[in-house]
Amino acid sequence: MADLIRSDYPLGAPIPGGPHSVSVSLPTMADVIGYEEKEAGVVSRMQCGYPRFFEHPYIGELKAFLREEHDLPNGIICLVGSERSLETLIEYVDARVLAKGNWSGFYGVVLAEDQAEVAERAKGFLQHTGMQISSREAEDGLVRLGLRPSIFEEILIERDAESLVIGQIARMIGVDIENLFLARGGMNAFYASFIGISEWMAERGRTRWVQLGWMYVDTSKILELMGPGGTPPIVWYDVADLEGLADLLEKEKASIAGIVTEVPTNPLIETVDLERLRAIADSVGCALIVDPTMGSVANVDVFRYADVLVTSLTKFAGNECDVMIGALAVNRDQVIGRNVFPFIQKRVLYPYVRDVQRLAAQIGGWFDLIEAANESLPQVVAFLEHHSAVDCVWWTGSREQVECYRKIERKTGGFGAVLSFSLKIPLADFYDRLELPKGPSFGALFTMLCPFIYLAHYDLIKTESGRAFLAQAGIPIDLIRMSIGAEPASQIIDRLARALGD
Hints:
Elements: E1 14-15, E2 23-24, H1 29-36, H2 40-43, H3 57-69, E3 76-80, H4 83-93, E4 97-103, E5 106-111, H5 118-129, H6 135-144, H7 161-173, E6 180-183, H8 186-202, E7 208-212, H9 217-225, E8 234-236, H10 242-252, E9 256-262, H11 274-284, E10 287-291, E11 308-312, E12 326-330, H12 335-345, H13 353-362, H14 366-385, E13 390-394, H15 402-408, E14 418-423, H16 427-433, E15 448-450, H17 452-456, H18 458-461, H19 464-472, E16 480-483, H20 489-499
Helix pairs in contact: 3-6, 7-13, 8-9, 8-12, 10-11, 14-20
């Protein structure tokens, strides 16, 4: 277990260490801020990053080769996982196309840089939708093209990997395998569901979406930027005030396409009363998308309430923190689920085959991780709640959340692996001293944490209005999101205690 609690990752090093790692070490608050401010001394040391936010070196290497090999014009090169993804990207960015095609087996486009916002829109599209090629896909291409001698040696299950993965996830969710799809990531699963439902609902004059609770940044961005006809979403932050939400939606019911919520939410770990929310969706006549990634479908049973369930398998299922995959399950017991199924099916971007094989090699450890985290989480929470340097702790077992959480908790489940907390002492004093892996992502075999608002909403921190907005939403700037791993709780608590000054 000693290997799981490594804390010696230098700035920019991949966590846990292989070339396909999805997290990256940001060991001090100065590093975090330097990364967000794009300081050269920090950015130059980044060997990797969370894949949807950071271009993997293998993808950069492949782009350089394709530019020269196919004599591509100067401009922004984007590589995506399918021909349909390519056309969707081009339509969204709305820029002059200098070249597009299948180059050496990769779908790509070169966009003109004559508009300042083109690069930002292209980057945003790939970040939000997860349609870019994966690092393993690029690596295989580099080997096939003779640019690298071999692929990184790792454990894969090559035979029947798809059946193994889909079968285990379907059993855990409680869905027939024909109603379950793998996707390039959790965000691609959400994007496909959102667009598919939007298309069907738009035919019925319904174009308005509802975001319930503070939500992961890319989910919010898809709702904000990619809705039908540019209709802005209704954002309702208070997951406890469902009666207020019901009253609002009753007035707008003819226009509402769907409601999206996370169970629990990220990063405040709030749990909505899903039974009541389902009743509201039914009374409005709209779809309900539920994302249980934070709690894990191993702990919470939410599919029966949803028209569509979306989840990231990068977390918990991919517990070695080195594969990007998601899944979505369509509930065809619901009228809306039956109708939107074909619309969603054509929008999903299937993951690269070697990523599925890598997930198949890890997924068997899902229950062991969840069982260990479920046992350790309450112990870590108890330590933090009673520490004089800790201001507030958010978790699924808190007094405000536990009743709603218990309604969806599986008999074999627990409170999960993720908590958030804020401090009474300066954030940097604690964060810089802490001897645990520090970087984005969660749901790994090893405990890890990050200053979540700095990484996900740094733009809000930088302005007075943004800070006021966070305060109004009840989110402290120094909030830390922590994911419990498989280490003994005593080891985790010991590290926390030393960083808190004990």
